[in-house]
Design brief:
mainly alpha; 11 helices; about 75% helix
Length: about 300
């Protein structure tokens, strides 16, 4: 069984990665744009927020700047693809590699500590809640607002044009939609959400590190695919809810695996656990559909 601290810690991290899953949902599911920029935009958001907070900027303004920085990184990837005709996957890899150096430039060193600084969490510790419950309360509010705004955006004219671009770019162009602009906007929005996640992660963990983005794309995909295995994404709202549910389940599964003495797993086994969970998330829906199909045929 998980302790209260381990449970709330897993939920807290899961909520943050829910934002990453939102971003990956936009790029992978809506636009059909494989984007590895997130491995660079996640620490970019953390770096920008951390440096601005240390310089005395309001933590919420610093977090807003992190969102804009993430959007700028995503826009660069999309422009490389749309304007320079570089393959989308290669364009994202180029941006991700460049962001490693940019993040080092921003921070001036490999990591920046925030333990003694005022963050977005600081006023919430005065609510009288347990220390480990405070981030969960704040991040639930952030997730709820982000989900609502993203859902409303996807139902708007621009959102529908973006979805049409991902579904059939040729048909979308025939309908007068500027598909290039939609791709740039969508990838920018995706990485803006990832930048927000990075900023919140740095403030909750008390530090920003240049390597903290390694594997974020895998975690986001695991959250997205796992959520879709639990909640069928028959609508945009259900798909967004699935992102959050998948991220929380993923982090709880990681926490349980690392805290279950009978399994004998340790912190260095994290990547192995991630690979197993992603594999299960990909395979199980197909197995479930096969079983249901056979059961239905047998009844007939």
């Amino acid at each position: 069984m998980l302790s209260d601290i381990a449970f709330y810690g897993a939920v807290e991290t899961g909520l943050i990665y829910g934002l990453v899953a939102f971003g990956i949902y936009i790029s992978f599911r809506v636009l059909d744009f494989p984007d590895l920029t997130v491995d660079g935009s996640f620490p970019l958001g953390a770096a920008v927020a951390a440096i601005l907070i240390i310089d005395g900027v309001n933590p919420w303004l610093a977090t807003g700047a992190a969102i804009l920085a993430g959007m700028a990184a995503g826009a660069v990837t999309a422009i490389l693809n749309v304007k320079l005709k570089i393959l989308n996957l290669l364009a994202s890899i180029l941006t991700m590699i460049a962001l490693y150096s940019i993040n080092l430039r921003i921070m001036g060193r490999p990591n920046v500590a925030l333990l003694t600084e005022q963050t977005v969490l600081t006023p919430w510790y005065e609510l009288g809640l347990a220390y480990h419950q405070v981030p969960v309360v704040l991040f639930v509010i952030v997730i709820a607002i982000s989900l609502l705004l993203l859902w409303r955006f996807m139902k708007s004219e621009t959102g529908l044009a973006m979805r049409a671009t991902g579904a059939n770019a040729r048909m979308a162009r025939a309908q007068g939609i500027a598909t290039g602009a939609m791709i740039i906007l969508g990838v920018a929005l995706s990485n803006g959400l990832v930048g927000l996640a990075g900023a919140l992660f740095a403030q909750s963990q008390g530090a920003a590190d240049v390597t903290m983005g390694v594997g974020v794309i895998v975690i986001g995909l695991a959250s997205l695919i796992g959520g879709e295995a639990v909640i069928t994404p028959s609508s945009v709202l259900r798909a967004l809810i699935a992102c959050v549910v998948g991220a929380i389940i993923y982090r709880l599964a990681i926490a349980f695996a690392l805290n279950a003495d009978m399994l004998g797993l340790q912190a260095q086994d994290l990547n192995l656990i991630t690979a197993v969970l992603v594999t299960l998330a990909i395979v199980l829906p197909g197995v479930r559909n096969t079983v249901v199909s056979k059961f239905t045929r047998s009844k007939v």
